[in-house]
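Blinded run. Sample ID left blank on purpose so nobody reads anything into the name before looking at the predicted structure. Input follows.
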Amino acid sequence: MPSMNRDTSHPTHRPPSQKRWTRFVLVPLLVGAFVGGVVVGGITRTAFGTLTIIGSWNEPPAGVDFSVLFKAWHLLDSYYVPATPTSTTPVQDRVYGSVMGLAASYNDPYTTFLPPTENKIFTEDIQGEFGGVGIEIGIRDDILVVVSPLKGSPAEKAGIQAGDKIIAVDGEPTQGWSIEDAVLRIRGEIGTPVVLTIFREGEKAPRDIEVVRAKIAIPTLDYTLRDDGVFVISLYNFGGTSVELFREAMRAFVESPARALILDLRGNPGGFMEAAVEMASYFLPVGDIVVSEYRGEGKPLVHHRSRGYNILQRAKGGAKIFVLINRGSASASEILAGALQDHKKAVIIGETSFGKGSVQELFPVDPHTNLKITIAHWLTPSGKTISNKGITPDIVVEISPEDIAQGRDRVLERTLEEARKP
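Blinded prediction complete.
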């Protein structure tokens, strides 16, 4: 959430209550759920109403020679012979193809052109309910990678895990695919199967996993007070309802007798950047930096700061705070974990996170298409980059295949040990 997909920057910032946030922190596109770069796990802001174009939209950029494009167009138009007399390529599809190639020339998996079909899928992802298998996917080293399966999704039930490399879909190799290519092929009619060929770290050979597509509803948050007095909030995404649900969970924690809080962000691919800032504000004093945006050489950093709710200091002074992360924690999850780690407000436990540290913004090209462009990179409050490196836990807990097979949660076990310490 690499883009499943959503991210942050200069569009108008609206209060959370308006629920019209403009940036996502999801990774790519979730295949049947919500994707990173859209669940993704990434952050992607919509720029509708805030679009600023330098120069005229309808004039070629100064100093650019478009004669190669025009000549290629005319050569293809004059000499191309279709495979069958009835097969044709609509003129507008050729235009869209040209723009897709332009976006691809930047060699950034999160900077992509979304023609009508892909744009419709992206919109469905943002709305949060659709048909698919329920995985967030990203691209790492030009390979499709599972950021995380959604809790209770068909993919999770079939055994798909965070970090799995998808090397084929229904027998078709995925080499060279974009996230959008993968989404188009993995999604399909509800109730139909799709076979994902995955390669898992530590195994000698790929394996085929059949997943039956279903309607995907994205879970958001659960919380509970354990019998041992530890309060656990499990946050599954930073979507439109997450802030309100998180507020309710934090209120329940404050009113409980618990003196330790576990915030479980494992498998959370991200969502709205503003949601991460809002949640961090429950732990940080007003004005503390939650995350900064680097927009390129010579440009000032853009800082996003805590709103200063800081209720733990006021109502639960001395409470122990733990944040759990893994390879499926991306984008907004990394922003929140990184902020609490840098400000020493929580102990981070688990595995190094995914490393989705770029910011995407959506720009409308015409009424049916969008350009998703990387416009910045995230930095933690101390200035550390998130991209590709992720957040390194304060306490690293290795998870073995045997642990997974046995359903043993070593990360939670270690966290409870830390919570019991004086």
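Unblinding after everyone has recorded impressions. Residues 1-54 have pLDDT under 50 and may be disordered.
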